[in-house]
Specification:
Helix 4 packs across helix 5 and helix 10 packs across helix 12. Helices cover about 40% and strands about 15% of the residues. Strand 10 and strand 11 form a beta hairpin. A seven-stranded mixed β-sheet has the order 1-7-6-5-4-2-3, with helices on both faces. Strands 10-11-13-12 form a four-stranded antiparallel β-sheet, with helices on one face. The radius of gyration is 23 Å and the shape is globular. It has twelve helices and 13 strands. The protein is an alpha/beta fold. It has a domain of about 250 residues: Type I PLP-dependent aspartate aminotransferase-like (Major domain) (Aspartate Aminotransferase, domain 2, 3-Layer(aba) Sandwich), CATH 3.40.640.10.
């Protein structure tokens, strides 16, 4: 059997200089979207250049450290993780007996929440498998992936009410096998927070673990609420919330990947942990899915939280909200365009009851704007932030022109697909 394949990249025979590496990287990045560019309305998180410089500085100091060995080789990492958890527990009003873990991202946080609920249920009230988790129609696909890997069955509502979770439909999905129910604050789709208090009360009546997926809004909603926005309670102040996930690498403004999984009762960490000893080296124990983990995102997240503090987060949230409100008002003034639902988070979705909104998105893309599509309804996502303070007016002007062009020519989109990630 030959391993040769035409055009296969060969393993390098010699090393490359730093200048050669820089040139090769620049060539490959030539068509990338600028992550903090003023024409990028895809997910982006930016405070200022000073914060980015701080991230680069502290990340470089721990680039070679492995969090897997924090307990033995790098006690500073263990302390920094613990302090990140404590700051998260304080922000989300956790009870005194709460605990938590730093993870590599929202998917792992949600995976671990389901794993913890599954293992606790198996210990506390054994039942026939497979056990089940009840999800809203808008719940993140990471729960489906976690359920697939953990041997749990998902029961997902088939519709949303007013662009958030349908409590009545989710109540009808509960069965004796249900171990967990999920609400989102907010979901990635629509950006409108689920009725967390109603869902938590429903779960409590059935003695079911209730998890709040606040990966998207965890480090945005508390500061928006402090600024006077009508944000419903969604954290541990709500009776019946057992766990909450919040991404540090979203509106915490840390680099990828860092997230928090917080538990109302730290004793449940025992069900989250994985332990194994029957091999030559000794005890292997992790609270997360990953073994080796980079220290840089954790140390950077800790640094950014300390650098910004509540005042800094409120400041950047206020700027983001101002851009969001400016854009929404401008979009609703364009004939034929509207915004889906009542989004609590920074991002929102543009729809149209009378025009092909995908054709508008295609025209905006041709004009140099980076956007992402959604469906149910057909729409495209706008993700405003600080970089758009200077480009919002140009974006609205281009959107008005694109909508007028689509209307005048009766244009239809060349592509009907909508992709969240690939």
């Amino acid at each position: 059997m030959t391993t040769d394949r035409p055009n296969r990249l060969r393993f390098p025979d010699r090393g490359s200089s730093r200048d050669e590496i820089r040139a090769a990287l620049a060539e490959r990045q030539a068509h990338d979207v600028a992550p903090h560019g003023e024409r990028n309305f895809r997910p982006n998180y930016y405070v200022d250049d000073e914060t980015l410089a701080l991230i680069d500085e502290v990340s470089a100091k721990v680039a070679e450290q492995n969090v897997l060995y924090a307990g033995s080789s790098y006690p500073s990492l263990k302390q920094i993780e613990a302090e990140l958890v404590e700051m998260g527990l304080d922000l989300f009003h956790a009870p005194v007996d709460a605990g938590g873990t730093v993870t590599t991202g929202g998917s792992e946080s949600n995976f671990l929440a389901l794993k913890t609920a599954r293992d606790r249920a198996a210990a506390m009230r054994p039942q026939p498998s497979p056990c089940e988790v009840v999800l809203a129609h808008t719940a993140h696909p990471s729960f489906e992936k976690a359920a697939h890997l953990l041997g749990v069955t998902t029961r997902r509502a088939t519709a949303s009410v007013d662009f958030h979770a349908d409590v009545a439909t989710m109540a009808g999905l509960i069965s004796p096998r249900t171990i967990m129910m999920v609400g989102s604050a907010p979901p990635a789709a629509y950006g409108q927070t689920d009725p967390i208090a109603e869902l938590a009360a429903l779960a409590a009546r059935h003695d079911i673990w209730f998890h709040v997926d606040s990966c998207m809004g965890g480090f945005f909603l508390p500061f928006a609420k402090a600024l006077g926005e009508p944000i419903p309670d969604f954290d541990f102040r709500v009776p019946g919330v057992w766990s909450l996930s919040a991404d540090l690498h979203k509106f915490g403004y840390a680099p990828k990947g860092a997230s928090l999984l917080l538990l109302a009762d730290r004793r449940n960490l025992a069900y989250q942990e994985y332990r194994f000893e029957d091999w030559p080296w000794g005890l292997y124990a992790t609270t997360g899915f990953a073994g080796s983990r980079p220290a840089a995102p954790i140390v950077a997240a800790w640094s950014v939280l300390r650098h910004l503090g509540r005042a800094g987060y409120e400041r950047v949230t206020a700027r983001t909200l101002a851009v969001k409100k400016r854009l929404i008002a401008g979009i609703r003034a364009i004939p034929g365009l509207d915004v889906v639902g009542r989004p609590d988070a920074a991002h929102f979705f543009v729809c149209s009851p009378e025009l092909d909104v995908y054709a508008i998105e295609e025209e905006l893309t041709r004009r140099g704007w980076a956007l992402a599509r959604a469906r149910l309804p057909d729409s495209f996502q706008v993700w405003p932030g600080v970089p758009h303070e200077t480009s919002a007016d140009a974006f609205l002007a281009d959107m008005a022109a694109a909508a007028a062009l689509v209307r005048a020519r009766g244009l239809r989109a060349e592509d009907r697909g909508a992709v969240y990630t690939r």
